[in-house]
Sequence to fold (377 residues):
Amino acid sequence: MPARKANPKRKGKKTGFFTKAVLVVNILIAGMLLLAYMAPVINPKTFWPVSFFGLAYPFLLFANVFFVLYWLISKPKFALISALCVLVGWSYITKTIGFRSQTGNNAPKSSENMIRVLTYNVHYFQKFDAKRDTATKQQMLDLIANEKPDILCIQEFFTRQKGVYNFKKILKEATGLPYLYFESSNGNDFEQTGLAILSRYPIINQGHIAFPNTGSGNEAIFADVKYKKKLVRVYCVHLQSINFQPEDYQYLNEVKQINTNVKSSKRIGSRLKQAFIKRSEQVHILKEHASGWNAPKMVCGDFNDTPVSYAVNYMEDGMQNAFQEKGSGFGITYNGDFPNFQIDYILASPQFSIRNYRVIGKKLSDHYAVRSDLELK
Fold:
């Protein structure tokens, strides 16, 4: 029989232009995701551009997940590019998303051995928002009272010395919390704004931590409360705000409509850059102060920064993040005009067990209230 002729090798199917273009974009997005992983460890004072990638982390994460799904359908081998980048940063996924069911939904304290902590940026009880009426004020008071906190940390607190806006008196009566420390950062003899800590337990000591070269209202206070013959230090924090102006919010709305300009982009970028740097300075001051207290402590408040940021990760080093321990979903705590992120936190020292966590999704302020039950070991 005549020998069979060898079949020539089939040439591989060439990758088309569109596929190549998508691949290039995929590689760029994957590289940006890797840069985002550097944001929590690089001080913005040293190299601030990386902080922008940390801010964009949720979008970069979902873009890479999209590419994984896209390539699995068309060219599975290319799916490894984004898949590996996502898996490398798994710890940052768990900082951003809680893969568990709600642990504290409308739940009363299961034990009197727990301390119920509530932190809430009340946006001055909407006093300066012309769109709101006095009904909102009462709804916010009802929200706080219904949660029955033992420790209440309030940012952007507003009060007058007397009358219907004497919130020092009103809050104590509404919550039944007899002990209050209020530190005024701005105001006069008639009305003031600042930070406040209310407690069911006696406040033995209190103090103010000033941040240099910062805007009014960005500061920290602390109170040492006596709980079952032990002292627990409570920090109420409001780190550097971005200080967007009305024209900045107008620009952000234009971005949504793909109608942007270079000048506004630079202005927004500059504000974000300065805020990243100032928060890094502030969190170093706060961390140094807190490190001098070896007894149980908690740090609560508005960090104005995301889970994949330098400020949050530096402060939570050696502490427990209530959201990471017991939170579910994305834990979004900001509902204002800027893209919605988790920027409010409850951190606790290792002497505590974190029993639950809840974001109370009532849109009364530009922040949601955050609650957690902590048990002293």
User: Anything to note?
Assistant: DSSP finds eleven helices and twelve strands in the chain. Confidence is low (pLDDT under 50) at residues 245-249. The chain has two domains: 17-96, 114-376.
